[in-house]
Amino acid sequence: MASLDLADFRAAVQNPEGVSTRAIDLHANAHDASHFLLIPQAVVTAESAAEVGGLLQASALQGVPLTLRSGGTSLSGQAVTDGVLVDVRRHFRDIEVLDDGARVRVQPGVTVRALNARLARHGRKFGPDPASEAACTIGGVVANNSSGMNCGTVDNSYRTLESLTLVLPSGTVIDTGAPDADQKLRAVEPELYGGLARLAERVRNNPDSVQRIRQQFSMKNTMGYGLNSLLDYRNPVDIMAHLIIGSEGTLGFVAEAVFRTIPLLQHAAAGLLVFPDLESANEALPTLVDTGAATIELMDALSLKVGQTLKGAPAVVHDIAVRDHAALLVEYSASSAEQLEELRLGGAGVLQGLGLSTPAQFTADARERGQLWQLRKGLYASVAGARPQGTTALLEDVVVPVPVLGRTCRGLIGLFEKYGYGNSVIFGHAKDGNVHFMLTDAFATPSELERYSAFTEDMVDLVLAEGGSLKAEHGTGRVMAPYVRRQYGDELYDVMRTIKRLFDPAGMLNPGVVMDEDPMAHLRHIKTAPPVAEEVDRCVSCGYCEPVCPSKDITLTPRQRIVTLRAIESARLAGDLALVKELERDYHYESVETCAVDGMCQTACPVDINTGSLVKRLRKNDAGKLANGAWSTAAKHWEGVTRGAALALTVVDRLPEAVISLPNKAARAVLGADTVPLYSAELPAGGAARKRTLPAGDADAVYFPACVGTMFGPAGFGPAGFGPAGASSGDSGRGVQYSFEQLSARAGITLLVPEGIDGLCCGTPWSSKGMLEGQETMKARTLAALREATRGGELPIVCDASSCTEGLRHAVASETPVGGQLPLRIVDAVGFAAERILPGLPQHEKLESLALHPTCSSTRMGLNDALGAVAGAVAARVEIPENWGCCAFAGDRGMLHPELTESATARQAVDVADMNAAAHASCNRTCELGMTRATGSQYRHVLELLEEVTRQPS
Asked: Which residues of the chain fall short of a pLDDT of 50?
């Protein structure tokens, strides 16, 4: 490989700082979801198609490989390189809905989930439906011709593509949807234009080539290049556009694409059909397909055994004594309830003749359907998460003609047994003859690599002998590149090599992907996963966590925090202490200081990792005796601490900002940005004490006002024109404690605030900073007070800040009730209001509109439905920003590192501005502060607004 001259790459981009050679950037971005690892020489964040064109030219000029990277969820090694890695996710996230959703123009950095959320407003969706839809991006879906459970070969990228804007390795940009696109391609790229025309003629004139292409692409097939485009299209520009689909970033960069969309079917019914064996399940497929089933998912016997261990598995699975059984998860989809019922009855009508092992039925109940899909989707997580420390999970996919699927699965099971790969479940899209299987091993020692090599050779022979393809939807990548010639033969392989030369004469765009002459290429560059921390060792680097991470656009994501820690450990084991030092130098800020520890990553992680738990422990390890002592003292004198903080905010609120700014910044410079918060003008004055007189009668619930309401006072007055006529301004803007108490009184609910409340806390401030001694002190005091107030657990405990509710739940979960004590029950005030207060509210005038910010805690606790219900009682129209995410204010994190909150909220702040809502609400005071700072609009607790709009004239 030629040596890298950064000057050409920096000249290609407007912001030279977008070209990085920092060790932490190289190692953090080196990993995709595959089992391969190459360390790039540089990482570039491109901001436009023109910049990518310049980078491609620099790559070709220097002879340095270049790889395009978006979501990084590819499983076959398409997104790793030892050359230049170009991030085309961060600045390529635009969506333009066309023709009321019938078509859509989209850039490569948009996730499938985000695209479908936009299209759902129009009753439409994107055709491809990969299981990684929450994290995979359109760029990867196009590059891999990804499909999924439903779309098959009918609604994939190839079939639904209308046009694309392509940046060629020469730097040429072609919009294939332009009226003169074919003529422009002929004029500016004559060799490519003529070469494609000649190749199409060559293929069409060879009957054997035509027959082989038609057979191969009658199935799902992402092996090699999409040679069907040479038969399906006549104009070179159309051939070019469709060759790009599935080319895995080896032929050019898709800057944007226009797709035809498909209807969003809102009604569904599903059932699990259990068969005696794989063969009988296979034989049932034609009958089930004829009934109009949208999805038919296969699970083998081992999958069912694993499924029996999953929490919430349906009874039909638990009740089986699994031997050779197999199951098909069948789902029908429809645009109306009537159409669904017709399909359901049709499916039910054939069940009796299928020879099922257990009775089955199709259900439209959302909970029951959710259990069935959790069974299917939980297989990967269960097996991958339980693999031994230090091993890698390798997920493969193959496709064969549907009639031989059962026999092929039997053959695969035989290979697993032959080579000693235990726990290798088989599951997949039976309707398409497409199955996945997973191997877990270290793939490190010569014997492990020899075993994997021999297994692969036998697996290739098995699949090709059945007329199948070695890759159905995961892409050829590096893992199957040496086998493309074997699948297609010499003639069509030479056609593919010619395609590569026509597009990329220098051969620098993602070399080693799709085709590789090295027969051992798939055995090289396999990554290792040294144990680093119990909290994260089961990470499979899938990247599902990244879209929900608030620090994704400024420092590291959860995946990157984990893989960088592994890089540090690998360097230490290799004796590369210089690399260890360089990585550790930047790791603290990039990983520890700027993690919001919000836990959103866990909501997306298939193996249930909360990277925040790791970061909390790292903070604990980093905290010195002085800090631990200070926080331990604070736990013992929390009333004084909170009142002192409130007083300080009240004082500075009355001073000119300039008077505060200089000494505040000086203190941060001396004591550290991670120690001294940065004051900003939108912060409110301090709040009031939480004390409250005892109720006259028996309490219905214990109320735990959060201490954050003491430190940060309430927002200003309510929206103009609401509240009772003639109400004084003093009745408005009193904060959530006043509002919740008023609402409860109107509902006839008596609240008891615990004795000594001003000295109590949920413990989150200590937990998030890793201050365990202070956390234990506060937990003991708070739980004792709550036990007394609740009469030993008889009464529910209601908290008015979602993060504090979650903190209390964690504290209670760690308690072991003794002597027959009842467990303490923690309820959020929003959920309590939705259940106990809303039903009794009088008719009232609503606000016109409300911008709503769910919090990370409300999301993790499953509170958002209740939050929406309360918000719906406040405003006629409630909107959540399309780009909603954790605001990353995270207690004091947004004051210590305001750049984190600014980055996390940038896109949703634009959405909020476009809403022009009458009011703005959330359910946690610090999140309200973060969103107020981000948008310039005053956010308040939704219960404050509910109290005001339902207040009756006195």
From this structure: 717-731
